[in-house]
Amino acid sequence: MILDLDIGNTLSKWRLKEAQSSEIRSRGAVWTREEWRPGADIPDLDVVESVRISSVARAAVLDETVNLLRHRVPHVYVARSMRESLGVVNGYDEPRRLGVDRWMGALAGYQLAGGCCAIDCGSAITVDFVLPGGSHLGGYIIPGLRLMKESLKLGTRNVTIDPESEAEALLEPGKRTVEAVNHGIYMAAVSAINRIYSEVCDQQGVALPMLLTGGDARVVSRGVQVPHAVWPDMVYGGLEACFPLTLAERAGKMSGAPNVPEPVSLEKIRAGLAFSMLL
Ligand SMILES: Nc1ncnc2c1ncn2[C@@H]1O[C@H](COP(=O)(O)OP(=O)(O)O)[C@@H](O)[C@H]1O
Ligand SMILES: CC(C)(COP(=O)(O)O)[C@@H](O)C(=O)NCCC(=O)O
Ligand SMILES: [K+]
């Protein structure tokens, strides 16, 4: 078995994948902390031959995790942001400083779709661009839905957006504090995404397929007008591409990859941008 770990600032996600069949056997998530309890937080390590890790938590979290695993698992692979991987050239001045979850998303998106706009809606919302030739442009970081809400300190902290809510309802003016806050942060997130996408496609002269991942991807997806696909396993896709272990992975297949969304034409993106400027 292969254990994939995606350690974010809020949640540590894990997934157990069968090495022969490439089937996903189980998955889960726990709050990010320094100590894992195999058998409780993550599956029993006896069945695991290889672990692949993407971590953006504090260095101590990764160190503790690797220390625990090194003694119990034959192969431990830790992803790092590089200057260049798999045909993608990192756009950061200091490539290693790019969050490795963003790098994994950019690599997975490029492997799936060629050029892409890869968005991760987690503790932070990150928007990264890769052009069809593999040039990563860098990206944008804004606070995620939960962080935006917590920063307001209006006593609405524990009333989260219902992930089943419809976008139309979430975009209406709120009539209570909780509603005003939830609708405000939702509007902030989706309008930033729509605008960033249009601006960059316009600047670069290319309409790119958009891919969404992260804990808030589904609810954010409903408010994003640009055609896109939600890919919950996008970070894992980057791990599969960087450290291919199964036959399917060696052939370039990433588990759970969506169909590539067909972007709207550049003319339409530009018309939308021009229209929003006139308002
Ligand atoms: N069951 C859940 N528990 C905690 N957060 C959740 C849950 N479902 C959705 N969320 C949202 O997802 C975010 C965490 O998403 P995730 O992509 O795992 O973040 P990160 O990678 O930063 O840890 C939270 O900030 C919250 O807004
Ligand atoms: C921007 C992030 C905090 C997002 O992390 P997440 O929301 O997935 O927990 C993470 O990618 C990170 O720590 N990045 C380093 C800074 C950078 O990418 O420039
Ligand atoms: K994120």
TrEMBL record:
**Taxonomic superkingdom:** Bacteria
Which InterPro entries does this entry report, sorted A to Z? Answer: ATPase_NBD, Type_III_PanK
Q: In which pathway does it act?
A: Cofactor biosynthesis; coenzyme A biosynthesis; CoA from (R)-pantothenate: step 1/5
The protein's enzyme class: transferase
> Quick check: keyword DNA-binding in the entry?
no
Q: Which residues form a coiled coil?
A: none
Localization (cell): Cytoplasm
Q: How is the cofactor bound?
A: A monovalent cation. Ammonium or potassium.
UniProt binding sites for K(+):
120
Locate the active site. Answer: 101 (proton acceptor)
Q: Which GO terms describe its molecular function?
A: pantothenate kinase activity
Query: Which EC number(s) does UniProt give?
Result: 2.7.1.33
Q: Which Gene3D superfamilies match?
A: 3.30.420.40
Amino-acid positions noted as binding ATP in the UniProt annotation, renumbered to this chain: 6-13, 123
Catalytic activity from the UniProt record: (R)-pantothenate + ATP = (R)-4'-phosphopantothenate + ADP + H(+)
One Pfam entry for this protein is Pan_kinase
Q: What job does the chain carry out?
A: Catalyzes the phosphorylation of pantothenate (Pan), the first step in CoA biosynthesis.
Summarize subunit and interaction data from the UniProt record for this chain. Homodimer.
So what family is this one in?
A: Belongs to the type III pantothenate kinase family.
Task: Indicate what this protein is called per its UniProt record.
Answer: Type III pantothenate kinase
Q: Which organism is it from?
A: Halomonas llamarensis
* Primary gene name: coaX
